[in-house]
Amino acid sequence: MAGIVSLCSLLYALYKEYSTRKILNRIQDMLEEATRGDYSEKEFSETKISKLESKLADYLQSSSLSAANVKKDRDKIKTLISDISHQTKTPIANLLLHSELLKESELNDDQRESLTAIENEAEKLRFLVDALVKLSRLENGIMVLEPKPENLSRLVKEIGSAMRPKAEGKGLYLHVTDGNETASFDYKWTLEAVSNIVDNAVKYTEKGGIEISFKPTEMFACISVKDTGIGIAEADIPKIFSRFGRLQSSREKEGVGIGLYLAREIITKEGGYIKVKSMPGEGTEFLIYLKK
Fold first, then answer.
1. 3-state SS track over the chain
2. Per-residue confidence (pLDDT) for residue 48, from 0 to 100
3. Model pTM?
4. What is the arithmetic mean of pLDDT over 262-289?
5. Is 64 exposed, middle or buried (0-12, 13-18, 19+ CB in 10 A)?
6. How much is the average pLDDT of 150-165?
7. What is the rounded distance in angstroms from the CA atom of residue 127 to the CA atom of residue 259?
8. Which of 37-41, 63-67, 96-100, 270-274 has the highest mean pLDDT?
9. Residue 245 class from Cβ within 10 Å (0-12 exposed, 13-18 middle, 19+ buried)?
């Protein structure tokens, strides 16, 4: 009799172990399916351990639906952004084209002043639309940054060449320090970010100029953009990185207040960061840290 009881106990233990292993294997399969994004609902028994399996299934099903909804929302945003970009390009281009044509006409001083205002506002609108499209693509994961080892000197030289005419047009110098620095960054987007910072430096500098140089550290490569401009009060430094953030002292300058916000978003998504050193009347230095 005792032998039969022992045998039954052994068989029951083996059955429980088999059932548990089977359920654990199913749970593992469920998690793997959810990771791949192709999870589908299953049927379960009414045992206690299968109840846990059922709760996990409910959670995964809910997560799967949420992920699908997020993807749908992103697709809608992507379509909207594409439509805005496409539908605004032609009108803005036409405004600028007709502004150029009108310049060839005989205009009095008031008319020419109005024409210049129209041209400036059209350019501002074009920059705003382009910046918002780029920002929306970044924030919604439509555009993904792909950092890889790149030569920083090439990036800085390209920015210097593009920005020098604007600086010299204001009677400013723009010096670029040569070097052989490398870091891990997305070339196209980092070019956008640092260009925005240099453009900002040119915009708020009336005499002297801008220096772009390197300050290597142990873990980061650092680009320094230093100007001799109007400077920023310490309490105002966080405000310049806010969306559409513009200081009272900069209201009369061109711009829409999104360039520095976009720059910080790009650098942060690459695992870097930006620091600012400034004093009113003593210029500003932007330090852009990129991972090596």
1. CHHHHHHHHHHHHHHHHHHHHHHHHHHHHHHHHHHHCCCCCCCCCCCHHHHHHHHHHHHHHHHHHHHHHHHHHHHHHHHHHHHHHHHHHHHHHHHHHHHHHHHCCCCCHHHHHHHHHHHHHHHHHHHHHHHHHHHHHHHCCCCCCCCEEEEHHHHHHHHHHHHHHHHHHCCCEEEECCCCCEEEECHHHHHHHHHHHHHHHHHCCCCCEEEEEECCCCCEEEEEEEECCCCCCHHHHHHHHCCCCCCHHHCCCCCCCCHHHHHHHHHHHCCCEEEEEECCCCCEEEEEEEEC
2. 43
3. 0.62
4. 92
5. middle
6. 92
7. 9
8. 270-274
9. middle
CA-closest candidate to residue 223, choices 174, 177, 172: 177
**Strongest mean pLDDT among 55-64, 128-137, 139-148, 213-222:** 213-222
The pLDDT, as a whole number, for residue 284 is 93
**Average pLDDT of span 119-128:** 79
Best CA proximity match to 131, nearest among 41, 179, 199, 181: 199
Compute the average pLDDT of residues 130-153: 78
Instruction: Report the greatest alpha carbon distance in the chain.
Output: 118
Q: Token digits for 124?
A: 């501002």
